[in-house]
Amino acid sequence: MNTKIIKAKQGLFLLKQNPPQESNWRSDNLYKFIYALDGQLDYQTPRHQLKLNQHQFMLINPHDEHKQWQIEKRKFLIELHSDSLNQAASSLGVASYDIHFSSSVQQNQLLSRWALFLTDYLSIEELDEQESLLFLEHSFSQLILLLLKQTVGTHQIDIPISVYKHEDQRIYLLLDALKQDYRHPWTLDEMAKVAQQDKFQLSHAFTSRIGISPYAWLQQYRLVRSQQLLRYSQETILSIAYLAGFSSLSVYNRLFKRTYGFTPSAFRKWIRR
Fold first, then answer.
1. Pairing status of strand 3-7 against strand 11-17
2. Where would I find the HTH araC/xylS-type domain in this sequence (predicted)?
């Protein structure tokens, strides 16, 4: 088994070939960025059974329990100290509280490029310990900025889509339309019409590019939009659910808890405290 581990001030980089299945649950005070480099990854949390395909990633929040089931080929893992990430978020004015990232499968071109470059550079270049640490510290800072900007979490008020504008115009047009009218009860046929594709082609292309289905992305976006109302408005949770486009309060509560591990009302109390 080939393993590369580099520890730095802000966290740890791990690249391991064909790691064994983990039988025990784990949890600690670190953020974990787990990326599927070249094979499928299977992870379990108390709320999810997550399957990552190539170039997809997941984030594990501090103290969240998780277990690794199966990993094909290589395991790419970055551990970040919670203080480093949350201090950066506070300094940038992104959030002044401990961030909770979505515990769902995500995919992002910028994060993929970052992960592939980091892996190639550390695998190919013959660096001494000091050079590796210096390179990794700068890389961790880049990762933190990308996570704060590009991923779904309690800190977000929007989901950026500009990266798709030049890479997949049809997907970009659909994402933009969904954002502009996220309260609308979209059907797959309507989405396909905007993207100018057959609905089955759209579903496959969207999932391959974004990591989740068009409807799942729309629900995720609605969740993000609701977070601003939870922070600053005096609206009831029921009103916020409908204002964000959800069909019912139960659907909203269930998705919010599945994503973050707590309900919208618990988030509102925590954020205001």
1. antiparallel
2. 172-270
Residues 142 and 166 in one domain: no
Do both 182 and 135 map to the same domain?
A: no
Element (H, E) at 244: none
Distance separating alpha carbons of residues 66 and 50, to the nearest angstrom = 10
Decide: 263 and 253 in contact? Cβ < 8 Å: yes
Termini Cα distance of the chain: 47
As beta bridge partners, residue 30 has: 81
Q: Residue 172 sits in which domain range?
A: 162-272
For residue 33, what are the CA distances in angstroms to 60, 239, 251, 265? 7, 34, 28, 27
Of 11, 26, 64, 19, give the one whose Cα is nearest residue 41. 19
**Total domain count, the chain:** 2
**Going by C-beta distance under 8 Å and a sequence separation of 6 or more, which residues neighbour residue 176?**
161
pLDDT tens-digit map of 68-103: 888 888 889 999 999 999 999 999 998 888 999 998
pLDDT tens readout for residues 155-193: 999 999 998 888 888 999 999 999 999 999 999 999 999
Measured CA to CA, the distance from residue 46 to residue 67 in angstroms comes to: 9
